[in-house]
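Hi everyone,

Forwarding the result from last night's run.
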Amino acid sequence: MRVTGKTENTGPSQAPSKRRWLVLAVVSGSLLLCGIDLTVLHVAVPSMSRELNPTPSGLLWIVDVYSLTLAALLVTCGTLGDRLGRRRMVLSGFAVFGLASAAAAFSTSTAQLIAARAALGIGAAMIMASTVAIIRVVFTDDRERAFAIGIWTSAHSVGATIGPLVGGLVTARWGWGAVFLINVPIVVVLLAVGGRVIPESKNPVPRRWDLASVALSVIGLACVVYALKQAGEHAGVNRPILTAAAIGSFLLHRFARRQRRIDEPLLDFSLFSERRFTTATLCVIGCFGSYVALLFFLTQWLQQVGEYTPPRAGLALMPLAAANAIGAITAPGISSRWGNRWALTGALVLFATALSAMATTGDTGHYGVLLLPLLGAGYGAGIVMTLGADSIMGAAQPERSGEAAAIQETSFELGAGLGVAVLGSVLGAVYRTGLPPLSDLDPAQRAAVGESLSSAENVAAGLPSETAQELLRTAREAYGQGFTTVLVIASVGLIATAAAAAVVLRPPEKP
């Protein structure tokens, strides 16, 4: 999230007592809403897929175009907010978010929903980029400001954690479109209250907004993610996939080179010359990516393989959410006892071990065997998210705390998008290769079954009972194999990250 080093206010130095707490309620409520939208669709995916019938690549775009757009635009929206006014940026973000939510709710095709989700990401970036700077303006007392930033920090992660439960309850009663429609009245209230209580502020010496850097980063990232998704959908690579990957890699390389040359870079890569900073950032990306991917794929597994209803699937994830919150709360105490390095390493190993244990259960009909791994995964991830973010800030020089904070928040959103994109492509490829020949079906039916488990369910609905049951059994087994593979890959990645943390995150030597 964009946190500028200078947050001077162009108006009064501090809002009246009651008003500044209303400001905190507005900005924290908006971050809670942005966090919920990160995961609220997870439980609604099966019902949405039956209606829109997206391809595997289309489904992954629907799920994570929001977080990828948000990650790509956080820093640039922060720069624009510093220049144009943070109040104006946040209120405009509310309007964009509300309109995009309505568009998503009434989408009738995959392309429409992807576009609406991307617009939601733009609105969320506009909201999130300036909120902490607004808090710094209205809370001038150090103790009050520390408390306010603590509330602000937890709002987004709490929203992401409760998103599946909200989505399950809403989907069961009103359908998948309602998970977006409920945003509209909330945004109207935030606009009305925020317009009255949020003071305008700008950075008197704003950084230059570099359009070329924005274009290079956004288009480059989109091309790389497109290549990953298409490779997963087609279980291999072809010329268009290689072309997209090459273009994306080239543009991202040019983006990195440009940031090193210009006086006011959009993203200062010199921060990554500090190995502790780079390692902590990778810990956050890997952990949050694995956590959001687990939320997404586990909800599909519970519903489509375990035959859970949407509300039941959302409730089944509550131990994971509760453990995550407890891990975040207890992380400072664990760090003070064992040190950031070993607390972070141990939490990564715990998260990896929990995913490995989950991969061996293989039976969603017995929720009890999932409970302990869920608790371990949530607790370990909560510690890593808290201490990883703290390590990012601790590794940067004090005068560069604003830039470090921008990279910190971007790493969370980028991890969420890439986690679902990469692991989702793997799951799709394993699912297709795990299907039998399906000789009883015609070519069109076989192609549909190979697209996704939701498509297989649609095909089965039109088949004789015995054939349909056999098709569903084999498709669910193939999906289960893909989910197990994803858990193993994520576990291995977390172990590798833990090893890097243990080696690199040594406390700096005293002179």
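DSSP finds 19 helices and no strands in the chain.

Cheers,
N.
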